[in-house]
Amino acid sequence: MASKRILTLFTRKYCGICEDAKDQILAIQQKIPFTFNEVDIDQPQHRQYLRKYNFDIPVIHWNDSLLMMHRIERSDLEKALLQETSGKSQVNEGNPARNPSNSSGGSGNGGNSSSGVGSL
């Protein structure tokens, strides 16, 4: 059974860290093949994501599951995607700071680029 490889970036216009995340994704895509989708949460058809991620963008989903949010470090994203594409069932196993169920307690954009995912 072939597994899907779809990475979705939730973003909006005028978001500098979203542009940085997109640049990281495109660079990684040169090494790891996957389908890349970009979703502008401010578009009317994506209103459900605006309510969910308004203050958390950029947000990255891998195959419809939350992978990362806030500042995206290329090394962290690449490591997570390599784990996922090598057959690991849980992308966040090796990095509790990126696992939504293990909140780092931070608000997300606090300047620490490895702060990871906060509580949803």
Walkthrough of the structure:
The chain has 120 residues and is α+β, with helices and mostly antiparallel strands. It has a single domain, classed as Glutaredoxin. 28% of the residues lie in helices and 18% in strands. The protein has helices at 16-29, 47-53, 74-85; strands at residues 6-11, 35-40, 59-62, 65-69. It has a four-stranded mixed beta sheet, covered by helices on one side. A hairpin with a 2-residue loop joins strand 3 and strand 4 (65-69). The radius of gyration is 14 Å and the shape is globular. The protein starts with 5 loop residues before the first strand and ends in a 35-residue tail after the last helix. Mean pLDDT is 78; it is low at 89-120.
CATH architecture: 3-Layer(aba) Sandwich
Strand order of the largest sheet: 2-1-3-4
User: How many domain units?
Assistant: 1
The main β sheet shows up as:
4 strands, mixed
Structural class: alpha+beta
Q: Count of DSSP E strands?
A: 4
Kindly state the mean pLDDT as a whole number? 78
- Series of H and E elements: EHEHEEH
Find the CATH topology.
Glutaredoxin
**Uncertain spans:** 89-120
Span between termini: 32 Å
The CATH class label is: Alpha Beta
Shape: globular
Q: What Rg do the Cα atoms give?
A: 14 Å
What is the number of helices? 3
